[in-house]
Amino acid sequence: MMSEQEWNALPDQGKVALIKQKDEAAHRYLLAMLVRMSWNGLRGELRTEEHVHKVSMSAYEAIWRKIEDFQFKSKFSTWCIRVVVNKVNDIVDSHYRKEGKNVPLTAALPEENWEFELQVPLKTICRRIWPCWQEVRAETRQRRDLKVWLEIDLKGKCPQEVADRWAIKRGYANTIATRIRQKLQKSLQKHGYANSQELVSL
């Protein structure tokens, strides 16, 4: 089976051809790319496993339907980003309409060069760290608050001052932020991880 390195090295014509041929590895790598794009496209409280799954699967189905019409006028990855952005905007519009709020302008930003911070699908990380989350949920107001903290830590930005700024923004005192961080690190170590950064390298 084709490796991810081989897939990444293919020109756009090769990737599109394999997708059209229903190559299993090509479709798997395409979906993984869309998951990462969806994660990067969603912001704030909308960046959840449920929404990432919904956006990525919707984008995957749209790309599969339209792949025959792809004209190579732009990069394949850029085309995929545009599809994902459209799906993200659908989620954002639906969410804020339900809440009766105006859609914030920064809810979804159609950036051309998103960084793929995560090298494995978000669902895999959620599954690996779930036991740790269960143990520290009592220290947070909602589970999504801990996801915000994890997002900071996954990017390698977890010094004291960053955690404290996050805590203040979320309405916690500094001492509570420290306790959350220490409790999460202990839980991660108990489950065999040196820190949460290690989760993305497995």
Protein topology:
Blueprint: H1 4-9, H2 12-20, H3 24-41, H4 49-66, H5 76-99, H6 122-136, H7 143-154, H8 160-169, H9 174-190
Helix pairs in contact: 3-4, 3-5, 4-5, 6-9, 8-9
- The percent range for helix content is 55-70%
Order of helices and strands: HHHHHHHHH
Query: How large a portion of the residues is in β-strands, by DSSP E?
Result: under 5%
What's the total number of strands? 0
Query: What is the annotated CATH architecture of the largest domain?
Result: Orthogonal Bundle
In angstroms, what is the radius of gyration? 19 Å
Task: Describe the protein in words.
By secondary structure, this protein is mostly helical. It folds into 2 domains: 96 residues, Rna Polymerase Sigma Factor, Chain: A (Orthogonal Bundle); 80 residues. Helices cover 64% and strands 0% of the residues. It has 9 helices and no strands. Helix 8 packs across helix 9. The protein is flat and about 50 Å long. The two termini are 20 Å apart. About 24% of the residues have low confidence.
What key phrases describe this protein's structure?
202 residues, 2 domains, 9 helices
Give a quick rundown of the structure.
By secondary structure, the protein is mainly α. The chain has helices at residues 4-9, 12-20, 24-41, 49-66, 76-99, 122-136, 143-154, 160-169, 174-190.
